[in-house]
Amino acid sequence: MDSPPKNGHHGENGIDGHGRRPPKKPKLVAPITPSEIATEFAHHEPSVARINNGSFGSCPSSILSAQSAWQRLFLRQPDQFYSDRLRPEILRSRHAIKDLINADDVEEVSIVDNATTAAAIVLQQSSWGFSEGRFDRGDAVVMLHCAYVKKSIHAYLHRAGAHVIEVHLPFPVRSSAEIVSEFKKALVKGRSNGRKVRLAVIDHITSMPCVVVPVKELVRICREEGVDRVFVDGAHAIGNVEIDVKDIGADFYTSNLHKWFFCPPSVAFLYTKKSGTTDLQLHHPVVSHEYGNGLADESAWIGTRDYSAQLVVPDVMDFVDRFEGGIEGIRRRNHEGVVQMGEMLVEAWKTCFGTPKEMCPSMAMVGLPACLKVLSESDSLKLRRYLRVKFGVEVPIYYRASREGEEDEEAIRITGYARISHQVYNVVEDYCRFRDAVNQLVCEGVTCEMLPDN
């Protein structure tokens, strides 16, 4: 008979009457070894140097087994599972997340499929402000120009009547001060002509190009400048940088747990700050039976689907605790690893990083040799695919167009950057394969123009 994973249950559902997770017992298992790490990720394609954890994350075998146990438990008796088991088990996961992000109350934490869903919830609520007449048409929404949810912002808010202002993210970026300066300019623009800034959307870690954004300082500036609401999109953040939602101070914060926190796809959280204005009428965009019972309950039931990814969060907590220093230790070693590997590539290609090293999380932007001639988005996609098919290297390529008035000769010369990731399963050989592949292309005089289109 299948049973759910053992992860510290007390009581029938592993929680007390308030949904609290039991206190952690002292760790009895030895720290995870390199060979055990290799076994946990042995399902990865062995012929590919996978240095792109940032796109889809990675899930260890033990967590996949835990997920499978939940799936079989549901399939054995679905009615009982949905009626008696699902809600308290999701509550356990919400408590684990609450502690991880330093939220005050579990009611501030909802679990959703991904950060894109979380963004839809926040943007939908803001769009109602325009459609219901609480906001004036032309009131502003501010976002970074490279925001991952850029199209969602336009779909929900521009269509509703918002004036969308994009903050240009300088790249290569030399300091956080550059980002702060551009952000302040956007807020000034947002308040021009008597407008109000109704929402600011700030990425904690931008996706492409990858930069750690000074979110705490930007949130503080928003408060000083009277921005109504601040939403931090930390899609890459949890397991990658420290998240303290009280310290950051945003009204909303989301992050995927399947990118850098070892959960299977797909699971994310949406934090909603508890305040005197809790009647924000946030609703899940998929309306189901729990509509009107609060966002957490609405998100916990959106019809018949596989909820198992949301139920293994406590198991993932146990997995990361097998590493020295837990998730903090993992973050530190991944950051050090990506910087070290980036330095190796920069030295080999005589290029540069796209950001200061302290603004790299577990990802880094590394300049490619200019002779490859990455001169368009199409070129970046062709090169990425060629590296995958010809050399077994999986890494995103970013095209960075030169801008008028630039004086940095190195920035003008380098228009192609690789976004390398470092996760616990990566080894030095992964980056050496990438280095050698690029060196071979350079040696053979290959340019992007010469690469096949598909």
UniProtKB/TrEMBL annotation:
Protein name: Aminotransferase class V domain-containing protein
Region (Disordered) location: 1-29
UniProt keyword annotations, A-Z: Pyridoxal phosphate
Alphabetical list of PANTHER family matching this protein: HERCYNYLCYSTEINE SULFOXIDE LYASE, L-CYSTEINE DESULFHYDRASE
Keyword Disulfide bond: no
Domain Aminotransferase class V, residue spans: 92-278
Source species of the chain: Acorus calamus
Pfam family for this entry, one: Aminotran_5
Basic and acidic residues bias spans: 9-19
